[in-house]
Amino acid sequence: MAFAQPVAAETPADSRGPAKVVVIPIRAQIAKPELYILRRGLKEAIENKVDTIILDMETPGGALNVTFDMLLALEKFPGKTVTYVNREAISAGALISAGTDEIYFAPAGVIGAAAPVMATGGEIDATMKAKINSYLKARVRAISEGKGYRGEVISAMIDADYEFKIGETVIKSKGELLSLTAQEAVKTYGDPPQPLLGAGIADSLDELITKLHGPGGHSVTRLEITWSEKLAQYITAFTPVLLGLGLLALFVEFKTPGFGVFGISGVVLLGIVFFGHYVAGLSGYEPALIFLLGLLLVAIELFFFPGTLVLALSGIALMLASLVWAMLDLWPGEPVSFEGDMLLRPLANVLAGVALAVAVFLVILRFLPKGGPWGRMVLESAVGGEPGPVHALNSRGRDEPVGTALIGQSGVAATALFPSGQIEISGRRYEAKLAMGFADAGIPVKVTGVSEFGLIVEVLS
Fold this sequence. Notes:
The chain is 40% helix and 22% strand. By secondary structure, the chain is α/β, with parallel strands linked by helices. It folds into 3 domains: 2-224, 2-enoyl-CoA Hydratase, Chain A, domain 1; 227-367, no CATH class; 384-459, CATH 2.40.50.140.
């Protein structure tokens, strides 16, 4: 989703300058992508002090749980919210429309038929349907208080057994659901006369904006929907798996020499997680920056100051905290609250990701062979045993153990050591790691010890 460039009016509507209007399209079935568009648009509108949000509505309905999330999001916006029924606001679309301050219609607009049904389109069990209808009508009354006949109108759209009368005029009889055309929605009833549901009819969005803010008294920003909103629903659904694989890949990278496919894969996977939650309207860029800072601290610990632990522990804490932060639904200008599942769900996702990473790593330790590329990472002491043998490449290119007899011997760095890599002694290559710093290929080194992951060396002066 991206914002188009705003088109400013030539003259301000008042001394404060042009009124700011943001148009958010709700133009498909109500599902996660529509929620993400709305939530991100509202948060950016709050930060930019927008005056009016207009929902450009054309939807056949959709998921009830997403509808409730969208209604909660609309309540966060401090300015005016308006629905423009561009063509139809059916089912969930009618409920969302009821959550805005005003409802306007295109001349051919239709709204109604909001009875809950199963995802397959079938009828819900009678007892369950009665419970859902009762809850829905209570929610509608809560969001429609002080808005004329709106609560009764939406109730008539939800419940076929509800009879809707104004005085002696029967608007809807029992046994059917209420649906309204634009002309029916703006028709007035009662004394004093009040429109049934609609605040007015406008031929276009531009005409509606002029009605709301006058000619030349506004600047308009229209959201553009991109592929990212649809992709984000799958990313957020598989967050624990992506987190687990990303953390595992980074851990493997730190345990193997150089920087290669595991490090790149880990960064990409975690980048996808941050991207998905940014698109979902749950976070900005800040959590990703904090994660990179934590990753940098861990790298400094491993490459330059191994064994100090302070940098590594601080880095890990920042990384995990940033992952939780990325999933928190925080709103501009509101105090942070950890009520309900606001914090529980992000914590559960991160813990599930960490558990998955640990589980997969234990599988690697248990079932993959100790030789070959895995042998450079998985040695006996990695699971609590004694330091295992160092491996070297023999004349046939296969790994074989060489023991600890190399301590004190000298060689050269066969590859760059950052701080891990390979050294060469008497024509044979060994996995090695500098105790501190880094060295280019060809630098003379001396073996000072053996660890579970290879030789420990120092640069010869």
